[in-house]
Design goal:
The complex is a heterodimer of chains A (704) and B (432).
Chain A lengths: L3 E6 L2 E6 L11 H15 L6 E6 L4 E3 L4 H6 L3 H19 L4 E6 L2 E3 L1 H8 L2 E5 L5 E3 L13 H9 L1 H10 L3 E2 H6 L5 E3 L4 H10 L10 H6 L5 H17 L4 H13 L4 H17 L2 H18 L11 E5 L3 H12 L3 E5 L3 H20 L5 H8 L2 E4 L10 E4 L5 H14 L5 E4 L6 H5 L8 E6 L8 E6 L5 H13 L3 E4 L8 H17 L4 H11 L5 H8 L1 H15 L7 H9 L12 E3 L4 E3 L2 H5 L10 H24 L6 H12 L8 H8 L1 H14 L8 H9 L8
Parallel strand pairs in A: 2-3, 3-5, 4-6, 5-7, 6-8, 7-10, 11-12, 11-14, 12-13, 14-15, 15-16, 17-18
Antiparallel strand pairs in A: 1-2, 8-9, 16-17, 19-20
Helix pairs in contact in A: 1-3, 3-12, 4-5, 5-6, 6-11, 10-11, 11-12, 13-27, 14-15, 15-16, 20-22, 20-23, 20-26, 21-26, 26-29, 29-30
Chain B lengths: L4 E8 L3 E2 L9 H4 L1 H10 L9 E5 L10 H8 L8 E4 L5 H14 L5 E9 L5 E3 L1 H12 L3 H9 L8 E3 H5 L9 H12 L3 H21 L33 H5 L21 E11 H6 L6 E10 L8 H13 L8 E4 L4 H12 L1 H8 L19 H4 L3 H19 L3 E8 L3 E9 L2
Classes of the chains: A alpha/beta (704), B alpha+beta (432).
């Protein structure tokens, strides 16, 4: 045995799980086999009356099943075999004559929690790291090692459904309150504290009250719960994700039956789920998040960033400031006047206040956080800043002037960054004496919600600086993606053509709401025209103009957009008018636009036309994404897809833009683009990268 | 002193009258604001600080050793120690002199000092009777006992004790601070009119200084956290009244001795919230770091006196200071004397120039030297700006240094009277 060690003492067997060479314990075949052997040993040792299982990993009991094994399973039958194996071992474990206790001192997730549920007693410690949950639905599957069977028995059918469907882990305290844990012991004296419970015969297995159990046998129980939960799931997933619905179905169909039947149904459900590609996509995205750390160049210096200067204390500056103070750094705003600084302070303060309201932080913690913000109108104190980010309006001359001024005030070690969505980092770098320590950090708005950050080194940026910034971003709980300097960088370069295309389509007379609905039906969180209104048409136009200047004809912006913005002041949500009319009560399509632009609005859109619209919106992005890979704007298809999912809300169940393209197939993509190039505009002409792919018959993800 | 102590930076919050703009920010938060800013302005990273010394008279009950709480909230690393010092009104100065000692002993190279007072947040206390009631209730074991205790409750037990009021009363002589000012007024025969004139001057000087922007460099704006009605940060002291007249002051009733008294609330310092912070290091350290200090502390002295006339403390401490460093009033270009009360300021002016006083009380043959009131508290004093006890010591030293620099003068004396019968005097020199 390598992962499991057992110490026998009196009537107790203490099992410690410690997978060698791994940061966390995960259930793969090898650990299952070891557990199987252990069961044999314990069966042959009748003197053992109690088996206590603990983890030697800090902060983790068992993090779940080994997802790599799930990912490498080649067929649905392979997956089913893996499921059966786990079920079988856990059943044997549950049938041990000795009493078993899972002593949980950290994260017990997925298969880890299912193992704990197969123990007679679930005991948590009072450590903050304790989290119990069944997050399988997040990966497009459902709990497969008895989770859907044993959890309802412990905490009741309805709470179990809520727990499994949400996929959200709960704290130890909450687990105790909901009956998921049978007892809580001191983390410092885990075993000794547990022994006291056992010896005083206070350790009792919890189960739902009799009334709750009787209720589940009422004739209408199932149909009521199904209706209720189903509509809630559809509301959040828009019906795009089958796993939560499947979990609901399995629990409802099995909670009155035997464990054996239930486990079979559980296994079959997973088999059905993995037959579709969604779980593979979600798992791949999960690993893509991990791969973010691998981008970080190996730097020599390790600057730690404690003091951050933020120039321009607007809404964006305030959001950036909040992100830093939320992670313990001190922020110094610099702006033209104290009242401007107050705007940034208030923007950050408002986000903090939301945290207080949601009880994420206490009022006192909020006060301490606010005290991390200071301000200056003269660059006073910038000598000790470790990082200075400018977030002034997007004008090259202004930014260059500000950057040159920053350089005069900071010391040699400080990193200087610009937050820009459209201007060239290389051009900006020309105004600096020492461009090696300068780079672009592109935040997405609103900063406190968007997890992605584009890191754009200039040609001269030192790898050390990139490494330091990436490490800081990761430590501050966002995902950095290193992008080569080009107009629009990565996310805007892909997303803006999609918005632009929607405007082209609108100008052909298609209804605004219909265009957006086609996008949301595909799974986009918001339609392109509604998105343009959210961002502000002036800002969108600015970035589009930069893209057109950089890429020419294929990013041509319709002339009328300029009219709408400058002459009519249709700026989107902030001015109340854009592609939609926004009032405090509702948002309706701005149909007067068609008259204003003298276009005949089409009221009927045929299914085939809808399909063309969908393809136009998506393939314009695919074509550009291929160019980005060709130009090495981004290092890999994985990172590009992750950026799309995190930066634009591209539907995760599609696996990302390039996964979608692969699903369509390279020939399908190229043929369709060629058609569109002939029928609509040359901007759809498939780029050379795609054509080479078609010739070589490869996919973006070659190995899949 | 073997070496001058460089004041690398000094800033303070606006001083706001008790119960106004700063009322929502308790001392453990208020102190953070100037402390962070002082470090930034001195170009000192928090991890370069060797020690934190904070003066505070009324520490919040929830933040014992408030200095440590402020230090941690200000991002000073955990390994850096912090202490709270208390010498009543001179607590902010005590922080400076304690820091100077540690620097000169070589125990530290960089010390950040502060003085903070949130008089708005001084608690109301239950009296001893109520406290005993609670104790007995807590100790009672049986329901019968509990009932018996409950029955002993009397409404008068609820009478609160104001921490502020008892804090401003001298426990040895039993006088509230204003009564000690009355003592000085009668000792030196200082009329009501003289006092009101001084108070009026204080307000006008402060208002003019604010208008001219002289105080802006020392003030760090404070952003209200919530319930803010305006969209502007708090930028200025709200005590000074530009439209103050002697006539209005004359209408006020004496507050501390209603029948025979002369001291009114108008000629007393205001109750105020505020905080200040200064970063100190040896002159040589400042030079080595290439800093341009705001100024230097060249000497200081504390001395005791009769608690019943505690306001005369500055005479005693300045006498000691002059003797110690062989100085005289001729070596003073500009002077700050804290205005606890107008009567007390004027009492000091008389005592400084009185040979009789020197003979009787200082065991000296010559007077300390006349104070030129045109060079005293030139930008107003605590009667206008307020007296947030521990913060005042920090304020008068930094405001003196800023003003010396502005006037291109060199030597200053900052002195302060201390409840309980003491005086503190600091001799400072402006930076280059």
């Amino acid at each position: 045995m390598t992962a499991l060690t057992v110490v026998y003492k009196d009537a107790f067997a203490y099992v410690t799980i410690d997978q060698p060479g791994e940061a966390v314990n995960t259930f793969g075949r090898s650990l299952l086999d070891e557990l199987d052997q252990l069961i044999n040993t314990l069966d042959a040792a009748p003197a053992v009356q109690w088996v206590v299982v603990e983890s030697a990993k800090k902060g983790v009991f068992i993090a779940g099943a080994d997802i790599r094994e799930l990912q490498s399973a080649t067929s649905a039958d392979d997956v089913a075999a893996l499921i059966s194996r786990g079920q079988e071992v856990f059943n044997r474990w549950a049938a041990l004559s000795a009493k078993t206790v899972a002593l949980i001192n950290g994260a017990a997730l997925g298969g880890g929690l299912e193992f704990a549920l197969a123990c007679d007693y679930v005991v948590v410690t009072n450590a903050d790291t304790v989290r119990l949950g069944l997050p399988e639905v997040n990966l497009g599957i459902i709990p497969g090692w008895g989770g859907t069977q044993r959890l309802p028995k412990r905490i009741g059918v309805l709470p179990a459904i809520q727990h499994i469907v949400s996929g959200k882990p709960v704290s130890g305290k909450r687990a105790l309150a909901m009956g998921l844990a049978d007892a809580m012991v001191s983390a410092a004296f885990g075993q000794a504290s547990l022994n006291q419970w056992i010896q005083s015969k206070q350790l009792k297995r919890r189960c739902p009250s009799r009334w709750v159990r009787v209720m589940t046998y009422l004739p209408f129980f199932n149909s009521i719960v199904r209706r209720m939960v189903r509509s809630a799931i559809i509301k959040t997933t828009k019906g795009m994700y089958p796993a939560p619905l499947m979990a609901l179905d399995v629990v409802l169909k099995t909670h009155r039956g035997s464990l054996r039947d239930g486990l079979i149904r559980e296994r079959d459900a997973i088999k059905a789920l993995v037959a579709a590609p969604i779980p593979q996509y979600l798992i791949a995205l999960f690993f893509a998040q991990e791969s973010v750390k691998k981008q970080v160049p190996s730097g020599i210096t390790q600057r730690s960033i404690h003091q951050v200067g933020v120039i321009g204390a607007g809404l964006m500056g305030g959001g950036i400031g909040w992100w830093f103070i939320n992670h313990g750094q001190a922020v110094r705003f610099m702006d033209m006047s104290w009242s401007m600084i107050y705007k940034g302070y208030s923007a950050a303060s408002a986000i903090i206040q939301k945290g207080v309201k949601r009880k994420k932080i206490t009022a006192r913690e909020a006060m301490v956080m606010r005290r991390r913000m200071t301000g200056t109108v003269t660059y006073l104190g910038f000598e000790i800043m470790d990082l200075v980010i400018e977030a002034v309006p997007e004008k090259m001359a202004l930014k260059q002037e500000v950057l040159a001024t920053i350089e005069r005030h900071v010391d040699e070690q400080a990193i200087i960054a610009t937050n820009t969505s459209s201007l060239s980092i290389d051009d900006m770098a020309t105004c600096l004496k020492n461009p090696q320590r300068f780079l672009g950090i592109h935040f997405f708005s609103p900063v406190h919600k968007m997890p992605l950050v584009e890191i754009i080194p200039s040609e001269q940026t030192s790898p050390d600086v990139v490494a330091d910034v990436c490490r800081m971003v990761i430590a501050n709980k966002k995902f950095p993606i290193i992008v080569k300097n080009c107009p629009g960088f990565l996310v805007n370069r892909l997303l803006l053509p999609y918005v632009n295309e929607a405007i082209h389509i609108l100008l052909e007379g298609y209804p605004i709401a219909k265009i957006d609905r086609i996008a949301t039906a595909f799974g986009m969180p918001i339609g392109p025209l509604a998105l343009a209104d959210e961002v502000g048409l002036d800002i969108g136009l600015h970035v589009l103009t930069v893209l057109e200047a950089g890429y020419g004809d294929r990013m041509m912006v319709p002339k009328v957009l300029d009219q709408l913005v400058t002459a009519d002041r249709f700026l989107g949500k902030k001015s109340g008018m854009g592609f939609y009319i926004h009032t405090s009560k509702k948002t309706v399509p701005h149909d007067a636009l068609y008259d204003r632009l003298s276009i005949n609005q089409k009221h009927r859109v045929s299914p085939s036309e809808s399909e063309v619209i969908r393809d136009r919106l998506l393939l314009i992005m695919v074509n550009e994404a291929a160019r980005c890979l060709d130009e090495k704007v981004v290092a890999s298809p994985q990172l590009l897809d992750m950026a799309m999912v995190m930066g634009t809300g591209f539907p995760p169940f599609r696996g990302g833009l390039l996964r979608y393209a692969d699903a369509v197939g390279i020939h399908g993509i190229v043929d369709r683009l060629t058609q569109l190039a002939q029928r609509v505009h040359t901007r759809f002409a498939p780029c050379s990268y795609l054509q080479t792919m078609a010739k070589d018959n490869t996919l973006f993800y070659r190995k899949d | 002193m073997t070496e001058r102590i460089a004041v690398a930076s000094g800033v303070r919050t606006p001083f706001c009258k008790m119960g106004t703009q700063l009322a929502a920010i308790d001392a453990d938060q208020l102190g953070v604001i100037p402390l962070r800013e002082a470090l930034l302005q001195a170009k000192i990273r928090p991890n370069e600080v060797d020690d934190v010394i904070v003066g505070c008279c009324g520490q919040p009950a929830h933040a014992a050793n408030v200095g440590r709480v402020i230090a941690l909230n200000a991002g000073i690393p955990e390994h850096v120690p912090a202490v709270t010092v208390h010498r009543n009104c001179a607590s902010g100065m005590e922080a400076l002199s304690t820091a100077a000692q540690r620097l000169l002993l070589g125990e530290a190279d960089i010390i950040v000092t502060a003085g903070v007072e949130s008089m708005s947040n001084y608690p109301l206390l239950f009296g001893p009777a109520m406290k005993r009631f609670f104790e007995r209730l807590y100790m009672a074991k049986t329901p019968a006992q509990r009932l018996a205790v409950l029955a002993s409750f009397r409404l008068r037990h609820l009478a609160p004790v104001m921490a502020l009021q008892v804090g401003l009363t001298d426990p040895t002589c039993g006088l509230i601070m204003g009564q000690t000012a009355e003592n000085i007024a009668s000792l030196f025969n200082i009329s009501r009119l003289e006092q009101d004139e001084w108070a009026n001057t204080s307000h006008h000087r402060a208002a003019q200084a604010m208008d001219a922007g002289y105080l802006n460099t020392e003030i760090v704006p404070v952003y209200p956290d919530q319930n803010h009605t305006s969209n502007e940060p708090i930028m200025a002291d709200n005590g000074p009244r530009a439209n103050q007249t002697i006539e209005a002051l004359q209408k006020l009733k004496p507050y501390f001795d209603r029948r025979f008294g002369t001291v009114t609330v108008g000629s007393s310092s205001q109750l105020t919230d505020g905080a200040g912070a200064m970063v100190l290091m040896r002159e040589s350290t400042a030079k080595a770091r290439g800093l341009r200090p705001l100024g230097y502390i060249s000497g200081y002295a504390y001395a005791g006196c009769d608690p019943k006339t505690m306001g005369l403390g500055p005479v005693f401490s300045t006498h000691k200071l002059f003797k110690k460093y062989r100085l005289s009033m001729a070596d003073v270009d500009l002077m700050e004397l804290n205005e606890a009360f107008a009567a007390q300021v004027l009492g000091n002016v008389r005592a400084f120039e009185s040979e009789q006083f020197a003979r009787d009380h200082l065991n000296d043959t010559t007077a300390l030297g006349a104070i030129d009131t045109d060079r005293l508290n030139v930008n107003g004093g605590a009667i206008a700006l307020g007296h947030p006890l521990a913060a005042t010591g920090q304020r008068i030293v930094m405001t003196l240094l800023y003003e010396l620099r502005r006037r291109d003068q060199r030597r200053g004396l900052a002195t302060l009277c201390i409840g309980g019968g003491q005086g503190a005097s600091f001799y400072v020199e402006a930076g280059e």
